[in-house]
Amino acid sequence: MSCHGCANKFSFFNKEHDCPNCGFSFCSKCLKLKTAIPKLGNSVCKVCRSCYAALTERDKNGKPSKEEYCPPEPFLRRLESLENPSRPPITLYRKDQRMQQLKVGLNEVDCEIVERLEKLREERKQQPVPTEEEMAKRLAVLKGEDPARMVSLVADTKKYVPPDTLTSQEKADNLLHQYFQEHELDSRQPDAVDEIAQRLAKLRGQDTSSGPPCTVEKKILNESAIVDTKGSLDSMSENDVNDLIVQTEKDMRHNIHQMKDLEKDTKHYLRATKIELSAQIPTEEAESSDEEIEKTIQKALDEVAIEKELEEDSEDNEMEEEIPWCIICNENATIRCIDCDNDLYCKSCYTQGHDEWQLQHHRNVPFTPKE
């Protein structure tokens, strides 16, 4: 930079100074004159030559060097006679700085696209957020269902649900009671083995109206077993419950093996029946009878295949063999924790884990692996 008066550049020896009246930069040679400055409270300061001439001339005449222009009196009276119309309010719109930065360097078409995008964003902000009932109505209309029913379902979900105050013992009793009730209902249903026996009897042409006698006997035995189990529920210990679970698993495995043997016998019997019937029927009726026999046999085989698939799924899910290892370190398990969903632990992992999580109240029984 250079001096505003002599145009000499500022340096270490020619330092920059400001005029307190006009604010321009001057060197020390051009800023030598002193005078009083009215805007600084008539304090005496060094000013430039132009400011010094203006301030000294004002002090001599008692008024500013340039006289203020005053409009004529008729003009002022005319302005006073005019009405003062109310001006519309001034509205200030604050624009998004990010959107303004996007417009930098864009052509007119791109600027219009940016403005449209900004308007869409403002419209979305002004729209109220839909309530859960409105969203449920829209969903019902899209699915083609009754909106009133969907709104009622949403209202039902907002009902107060009391906290669960049952103890662990009461929950266990309720689960056992529910299990016995489900078992009682299942015992009233016809057995799959009996249904297959009835189908075989129909294929043989035997009378199935009386029903298999074994079903009634099984129901009576199941009902009596349930009654006895309910009566001795309070007196059962933890070991008895575990033995009951193991015995139930063995019975289910035995039933599955029986079903597989029955399926094999059914296939052999159907093949033998087909050969026997084909030998008894005359040759002119053999073609039509063979078709009927094949349809009947195929239908029975399809039903057996469906039941086999269901049994395999249940066997995979329910009859999975238990691995006698600790669930933490894979060592040989020695303890079964009843309150941890019958998980298996070694002695060190059980003690360390239950002490760390403050689960010393959990019940446990010794575990011996099956041979």
Task: Report on the architecture of this protein.
It is built from 12 helices and 7 strands. It is mostly helical and 371 residues long. 57% of the residues lie in helices and 6% in strands. The protein folds into 4 domains: 1-67, Herpes Virus-1 (2-Layer Sandwich); 168-236, no CATH class; 239-320; 322-371, 2-Layer Sandwich (Double Stranded RNA Binding Domain), CATH 3.30.160. It has helices at residues 49-61, 73-81, 97-103, 108-126, 132-143, 147-157, 168-188, 192-204, 213-231, 238-280, 286-318, 347-356, and strands spanning 17-18, 25-26, 33-37, 43-47, 335-337, 343-345, 364-366.
Quick structural summary:
Helix content is 57%, strand content 6%. With 371 residues, the chain is mainly alpha-helical. The strands form three sheets. A three-stranded antiparallel sheet has the order 6-5-7. A two-stranded antiparallel sheet has the order 1-2.
